[in-house]
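Hello,

Our lab assistant flagged a job as stuck in the queue for most of the afternoon. It eventually completed. Since we weren't sure the result was trustworthy after the delay, we are filing this so someone can double-check. Below is the sequence as submitted and the structure that was eventually returned. Let us know if re-running is recommended.
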Amino acid sequence: MKILIVIPARGGSKRIPRKNVRIMCKKPLICYSIENAKALQKDLDVDVAVSTDDEELIGIVEKRGVEVVRRPAELATDRVTLDPVIYHAMQQMEETHGCRYDIVITMQATSPTLKTETVRAAIEFFINSEWDTVISAMNKPHLSWGVVDGKITKNYEKRLNSQELPANYVETGGFLITRRECVKEDSRIGEKVNIFEIPEEEAIDIDTYSDWVLCENILRRKKIVFRTVGKMQLGMGHIYRCLTLAYKLTGHEILFVADAQSDLGIARIREANFPIRQVKDEAEFEELLKEVQPDILVNDILDTTEEYMSMVVKYCKRVVNFEDVGSGAKYADAVINALYEKGEKLHNEYYGSKYFCIRDEFLEEHPKEFSEKVENILVIFGGADPSDLTGRLYEICKVLHGKHPSVNFHFLLGFAYPYKDKILTDEENRIYVHTDVKRVSAYMNKMDLAVTSQGRTVYELASMGVPSIVLAQNEREAEHVFAGIQNGFINLGIGSEQDALTIISTIRWLIQTPKVRQEMRKLLLSKDFSKGQDRVIGLILNDSDDEE
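-- returned structure --
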């Protein structure tokens, strides 16, 4: 079938002056429709014409190899509808090419987010049907009101949630596909009409400045893949960091990828309602990258190899790694190691606590006033606690209760902690166990002292000014030097190697020395984590202005 696509584009525009020639994301607005129409010529017998009265538009159009139908003055006023404009363009193109078109498509110049695949699918739908006309529309059911005889009247019978309301199709400026015989001076719509539903983000028809801003945001959207891990041996820190960043990257297209062994992490990501794909090995991940073609890959999987990084850089425009000290790190565009400190920053490495991505809840809470008396002690060892330091502290706190009977011990069990059936509230020893805590900061800012592992939780405790004793889960975690005396922590090394007597005596010493705890608190609160998220987001999106 022979198809004509007409793109109507006047030079004048009242709400957004000269909008069709204004630059949107580095090219004139009309170029998006032109590119969509020309892309269809690969598969279909399509002629493309722009109907315009404007010399600047003519120059833009002709430069891109598209025919121009010069619109007469009487068809270029505000009061003229599109029907006579499309009819005129069709007649001119048929005369020029000596043909008669089977299908005439109107594509507005003001729908830059519309995708070629959507238009192609709509044309196929039309060709394979008996409809006279198919119009692009989005389904937007809402409770609405109208005016009848000067009186405000509801347009519905029963108030329902939007998902329960009947369909309400709103036309978009994307396209109107119709049979040639339906195109007249006063109409382009035949008797048999259907709609082709398109996604809301493709349905924007630029009419106001707010439409313009929204379109720019959509066009700047990135496809971002988070490759991460979350299982008993490694804990859940990688998952929580990626989720924190994903929440901050609202508006971008996010996909999580994890190996099948990361069952704990996969469950948490699904609970957060982010899309996730499982891969069994690197070959399967490579196939996924070929399919998705992400703009950005974020690796939060610890150390990478040269082989792995050589593979991923072939498919991703930008690669950002976390906590990577492997041989593949040199291939990344940025390596963010917030848990480590390093004096000299190499070309792609960003070290130190200034890059720690603290969760939003800690930016909203405020530290409690300092208390000379210790009334509440927090025990928290992360999402999984692979060394079961929680179990050790549970027994230690029973001993401490005998020495300090007025102290309350609060255990916050992680999402993936496997021994929840053994760690139970024991009011006799003033031990209180909290599970499925949604807002950890609300507990931390009530504590006078804490015992924790040496991962990300130390930064959260620092933001709340809680003096803390640190027990590392493993040798790698023990390398995270932030949790040292210089920042207000008492670090007892690897927890499994430390004896109970030392842990007990250290806790008792801090309970009995308020001046030490006060100095620790001052050091903790001297750190500012408020800009960490923004710095990391800037590095991921490659728009960071951080020069340090």
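-- support follow-up --
The delay was a queue issue, not a problem with the job. The result is valid. DSSP finds 17 helices and 24 strands in the chain. The chain has three domains: 2-218, 222-358+535-541, 361-525.
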